[in-house]
Write a structure and sequence with these properties.
This protein has helices spanning about 15, 20-40, 85-90, 130-135, 160-175, 195-200, 205-230, and strands at about 70, 95-100, 115-125, 140-145, 160. It is an alpha+beta fold and about 230 residues long. The strands form two sheets. It has a three-stranded antiparallel β-sheet. Strands 1-4 form a two-stranded antiparallel sheet. The longest helix has 28 residues, at about 205-230. Bound molecules: iron/sulfur cluster (2 copies). One iron/sulfur cluster (SF4) binds near residues 81, 82, 84, 139 and 142.
């Protein structure tokens, strides 16, 4: 491929002095500075359109956002988790540990006749926030909430136990940030069996076939009868 010839640019006197170019740059800087000062006095959740004043200004989180996990309670304050382990099996990062067990002391009456988990832990350092655990849970017990500030000073604090997961739920409930329950999955009507359809839709045909067979049968009997006297 032929190379393009290098064309040497001829600078004007103003460009060679640089003063005009410096003035142009300063004009642009001052323009943004004045714009931001004006915008900072405006009312609103975020005052400067190009910049969110975090942590004072917080963006609205989408309902489908997958943040820190929580273990939900029902209206009676009972844990929904039954310790089935479906979430742990569905987790691709293998970061959930569930052990089924008996209720804690003093809570036997509360959970009488119900199964529950004695240990529930999530290693948040390994979690990839895929949401598989939420989808796999048959009781809608584990849910990924909207908390995203998950940094800790100690790695051990990143392992969420049952107490912390329930406290996440209580906090979200108090702040009105609970996810709505998932919509029920529509179930299609079972396909109509072909044989049944034929019987229902074309009864005449089947009858006709039956009639034909009967007639055939009659025919043979007549023939047999006919054969009889010949002998
Ligand atoms: S969000 Fe995904 S990776 Fe995290 S605990 Fe649930 S299933 Fe495991
Ligand atoms: S959170 Fe749901 S899937 Fe996981 S053990 Fe509890 S009931 Fe089972």
């Amino acid at each position: 491929m032929p190379r393009r010839p290098v064309v040497k640019k001829e600078y004007t006197l103003g460009e060679r002095v640089y003063l005009v170019e410096i003035a142009k740059g300063l004009r642009l800087t001052w323009k943004h500075f004045v714009f931001n000062i004006k915008a900072s006095f405006q009312k609103g959740p975020h005052t400067v359109p190009t910049c969110w004043q975090y942590p004072e200004d917080r963006r609205e989180i989408a309902p489908i956002f997958r943040g820190a996990h929580m273990l939900q309670l029902n209206d009676k304050g009972q844990e929904l988790c039954v310790g089935c382990g479906m979430c742990a099996r569905a987790c691709p990062a293998k970061c959930i540990t569930v052990k089924r067990g008996k209720p804690a002391e003093g809570e036997e009456d509360k959970y009488a006749g119900k199964t529950m988990c004695s240990t529930f832990e999530i290693d948040m350092l390994r979690c990839i926030f895929c949401g598989n655990c939420e989808k796999a849970c048959p009781k809608n017990a584990i849910v990924l909430g909207q908390d995203y500030e998950l940094a800790e000073y100690e790695p051990g604090l990143c392992i969420y136990d049952k107490k912390r997961l329930i406290s996440n739920f209580l906090k979200a409930k108090a702040e009105g940030r609970l996810k709505p329950p998932p919509a029920p999955i529509p179930i299609d009507a079972p396909p109509v069996k072909k044989k049944a359809a034929v019987k229902k839709t074309e009864p005449g045909k089947t009858k006709a076939k039956g009639g034909e067979r009967a007639e055939k049968g009659k025919g043979t009997s007549v023939k047999e009868e006919d054969k009889g006297p010949d002998k």
